[in-house]
Design a protein that fits this description.
The complex is a heterodimer of chains A (138) and B (384). The radius of gyration of chain A is 20 Å and the shape is elongated. Chain A has one helix and nine strands, in the order αβββββββββ. A six-stranded mixed sheet of chain A has the order 2-3-1-9-5-7, with helices on one face. A three-stranded antiparallel sheet of chain A has the order 4-8-6, with no helix packed on it. With 138 residues, chain A is an alpha+beta fold. The longest helix of chain B is centred in the N-terminal third of the chain and has 9 residues, at 2-10. In chain B, the strands form six sheets. In chain B, strands 3, 5, 7, 10 and 12 form a five-stranded antiparallel sheet that branches. Chain B has a five-stranded antiparallel sheet with strand order 4-6-11-8-9, with no helix packed on it. In chain B, strands 1-21-13-19 form a four-stranded antiparallel sheet. Chain B has helices spanning 2-10, 56-59, 303-308, 343-351, and strands at residues 19-30, 45-54, 64-67, 70-75, 116-117, 123-133, 140-144, 155-161, 167-175, 178-180, 187-195, 210-218, 224-232, 235-237, 248-249, 255-256, 261-263, 271-275, 311-316, 323-331, 375-383. The chains are: A alpha+beta (138), B mainly beta (384). The interface between A and B is large, with 56 and 48 residues. β4 of chain A pairs antiparallel with β1 (19-30) of chain B, so a sheet runs across the interface.
Chain lengths: 138, 384
């Protein structure tokens, strides 16, 4: 009985540590609103270079826009960088660099490209979210 | 774990770890997958256009209001009788923030210690957190404090500046609480107020214009965007040439195509680019001069070449210059050994350069029948 209780304590302790890690990593993730508007015509682009969100502006069919996120590791340990995308805009978006390790003190840029396909609905605003997780590595 | 995770994904970032991520203001767009010119013959000319504009999301940003946020400088003058203004009326920070007065000619009761008296001929320069933007109607309102029911008029000269160096007069003598327009200025960050009241009309203890607050329009961005149109090589997928992966710069600083694709024969040197819409302010074209065809050769097309032969444009929301149309004019090259006798004069005429070497722009004969390509990249270079 005593041994089972000790094992249960160990498991509970591990779960608590894992929970706290997930809690901090999720809370610390950078969360960006992303949007793009499909406009009519050809060869038309509208720009909105805001730094408050990933706004890809207005794009006519067959055009694309690139926004860049700079990531800097100011800690003393390497960080595993993971980018998740959600929402309708996620289907239009490509992430140039994902699931990689950023060494301590290093900086990098991640390019996100949105392409407006021929099947896009004119006048529709495609929205979504992009989350950038930073996970300490051992 | 899932129940806890969902709210966390919606939570504001806590930044427990010192890893920062910043959205860059740079925006790069490739305006069109293809401006297709079809099958063409040497020395033919074709025109296509593409549009660059302010995004609907930017144009939807509304203009708010703000109050003066900082005292940049102050130079308080004396009262009419030559003595110093009372201490309770000598703190210029009282002119910051929202007014305590109602904006009426006579403010009763007067809230004590709520305003800054300039003194006769005195001045104060105030700074604003956001841009004061010129819009429909007045853009600035000054709030003055006067008690009682009868008192000589107090006047203030109002000037505005974008850099606290160069000043534009908005009103030579604004009376009491007054609405002011930015006039010729598209935007400002500083307002300077100078008392211009006539001391002869006042009692000996009078202390000039009593400034309570300055209210102004507010936008975090003016909406002026500078951009460059740069030409870069175009890639085509080896298996499906109708697919065009994005060209990139390799570690050596040269243009390269992703694995599984190849670089198409270069069309960039043969494209002229000119902005063809008239800007709202007559005689004040804010876009670059454009670029004629036949440029960039001989030699490889590098990122430096792309920058050297870029064209610039500006979009300005303040003057309603919200869109630019660029005319892309293709001058079709001939192939080496198969050029017409007037090829030389054609190149010199279309390029506008008498010292150009037309032979540099003869295409390799082995490329006959190939599809040429060039990517036009619109890159935002500055935003205000």
């Amino acid at each position: 009985m005593k041994n089972i209780k000790t094992r249960e304590k160990i498991i509970a302790g591990i779960l608590i540590v894992v929970f706290l890690c997930v809690f901090y990593i999720t809370l610390d993730a950078n969360k960006y609103r992303a949007e793009v508007v499909a406009v009519e015509g050809e060869g038309r682009v509208g720009v909105n270079p805001t730094t408050e969100s990933l706004d890809f502006g207005d794009l006519s069919k067959g055009t694309s826009a690139v926004r860049t996120v700079s990531v800097k590791n100011g800690t003393s340990v390497a960080m595993f960088i993971m980018v998740w995308k959600f929402g309708g805009i996620g289907d239009l978006m490509k992430i140039a660099k994902n699931n990689f390790t950023l060494k301590a003190g290093n900086e990098t840029k991640i390019e996100l490209t949105v392409y407006m396909p021929a099947s896009a609905e004119i006048g529709k605003t495609y929205t979504g979210r992009v989350y950038l997780f930073k996970i300490p590595t051992l | 774990m899932a129940l806890v995770g969902a709210p966390l994904l919606g939570a504001f970032e806590a930044h427990v770890l010192n890893v920062t991520a910043q959205v860059e203001s740079e925006v790069v767009t490739v305006p069109t997958e293809k401006l297709e010119y079809g099958t063409v013959f040497p020395q033919e000319k074709f025109e296509k256009t593409f549009d660059v504009s302010l995004a609907s999301s930017l144009l939807a940003e509304t203009t708010g209001i703000q109050y003066a946020a900082s005292v940049v400088s102050s130079s308080q003058a004396n009262r009419k009788n030559g003595t110093a203004v009372l201490a309770a009326r000598s703190d210029p920070s009282k002119a910051l923030g929202a007014p305590q007065s109602g904006g009426t000619p006579y403010d009763n009761p007067v809230v004590a210690n709520s305003f800054y008296s300039l003194g006769f001929g005195g001045s104060v320069t105030l700074g604003f957190t956001n841009y004061i933007v010129n819009g429909p109607g007045p853009d600035i309102r000054v709030f003055e404090v006067t008690g009682g029911t009868s008192y000589p008029d107090e006047y203030v000269k109002v000037e505005a500046s974008q850099d606290n160096v160069n000043w534009t007069l908005l009103s030579a003598a604004a009376l009491r609480d007054a609405d002011i327009d930015l006039g010729v200025l598209g935007w400002a960050r500083y307002v300077r107020l100078t008392d211009v009241s006539d001391p002869a009309l006042f009692e000996p203890e009078a202390d000039g214009y009593d400034l309570d607050a300055v209210r102004a329009t507010s936008r975090t961005r003016v909406g002026i965007i500078d951009y460059a149109v740069r030409q870069k090589p175009k890639c085509a997928d080896d298996a499906d040439p109708s697919v065009h992966p994005q060209v990139y710069e390799d570690s050596a600083g040269n243009f390269a195509c992703p694995e599984g694709s190849h670089m198409m024969p270069l069309l960039c040197p043969y494209l002229s680019k000119h902005e063809v819409t008239a800007d709202p302010l007559e005689g004040e074209e804010n876009d670059g001069a454009g670029l004629t065809a036949f440029h960039g050769l001989p030699g490889p097309w590098t990122p430096a070449t792309a920058v050297q032969f870029q064209v610039e444009g500006r979009l300005d929301r303040v003057i309603n210059d919200n869109a630019d149309t660029w005319n892309i004019d293709l001058k079709v090259p001939c192939f080496q050994g198969q050029c017409a006798q007037d090829w030389s004069s054609f190149v010199k005429r279309e390029s506008g350069k008498r010292d150009i070497n037309p032979a540099d722009y003869e295409a390799d004969a082995s490329l006959k029948g190939e599809t040429f390509g060039c990517d036009l990249w619109v890159e935002v270079t500055a935003i205000l």
